[in-house]
Design brief:
Layout (H helix, E strand, L loop, with lengths): L1 H9 L1 H21 L21 E4 L20 E16 L2 E4 L4 E4 L2 E2 L14 H14 L3 E6 L10 E9 L2 E4 H7 L4 E2 L9 H14 L12 E2 L3 H6 L4 E7 L2 E4 L3 E5 L9 E5 H6 L1 H6 L7 E10 L3 E5 L5 E4 L13 E3 L10 H4 L12
Parallel strand pairs: 4-7, 10-11, 14-16
Antiparallel strand pairs: 1-2, 1-18, 2-3, 2-6, 3-4, 5-9, 6-7, 7-8, 11-15, 12-13, 13-14, 15-16, 15-17
Length: 360
Amino acid sequence: MQILMFLRKASSHYGSQLLTSNKRHEKREVRSSKAFPGDHGARSDNSIKFAAPIISIGLMFAFPIPELFAQDRTQPPCTLQAGPTRAVTRVLDSETLLLDNGREVRLVGALAPRSPNHRADTRPWPPERAAIAALDDLVLGQSVELAFSGRRSDRYGRLLAHVFLKRGGERVWVQGKLLSSGHARAYGLPGSLACMPELLAHESIARAANAGLWSNAAYAMRPAKRTHALMRLRNTYQIVEGRVVSVVATKGRTYINFDRNWRSDFTAGVSAKLLRAKPDWAKALAALEGKAVQVRGWIEYRNGPFIDVLDPGQITAIEKGRRRPPAKPGAPRMSSDRRDITPDPKQKRPAQKTPGAVDL
């Protein structure tokens, strides 16, 4: 706490000047905001009581901002409620399955690659084509177990589920397999953010190996200073990197600013709901000032490019010139199982690309 107080005092020479600006920013953000793609269906307030076994994904992944949480390295595991077992009759696209009962399942947490060109006559996008082929090879004709956390369906009636299957005597987490092989990016939907640390851990394997979509410039890191380029990417999911100029708390939101000009700079906004849910994390945000940070999410317009932060996993403090090797992701297992399931060695780390490839 003393360190945080010192950092706040040290940054007061410009933090106070931005406070008023960010309050104005907050008032104007609603009318200038545009919804991002993907589901924004209403969340149900009714809790679902489900008398079923629990699936637990063991967490073996450091918190995305370890410098700010050195005293609390233990995170609760991602706990899922087990659902039905069905057969996959068709792979509809790179993130949607059709089951034998006619229901569609969206692979929540794994964002499939899509073509940047949305014209109807566009040829198939190679990363998307590769992701469909990988998913088809993995699940088509297989019996799969569904598991849920938070919302169970979107506004289109698709199930929002984590999907598991048995292969070679081992339980395979489909989302984890796609992420670690570079066929998807980790993300969350409102109401479906419980497993972000595990999703990010699997994604980090593919990023370190420059595998799959991470070798494509369309998924490169976006500099926070290039605001005009970011605005051209409005309504797309991006990872933005830059150095934090200030962290300013207002009544309804905390703003992480990447420049002094609030009217046009890139900003990440943390909602009051998340701040209340993670009070220790919220207090530690002030220590991000002056640090190089990556923020992931949907690019919106709110007095410049803006990302709405719904989960701590969307913000990662980084060290310039040093990239730590990815942590081993935990292997999914049923809590009713009394044995540890060893992941497929091929799932631990994809093959490295040729030397000289850009490491994102």
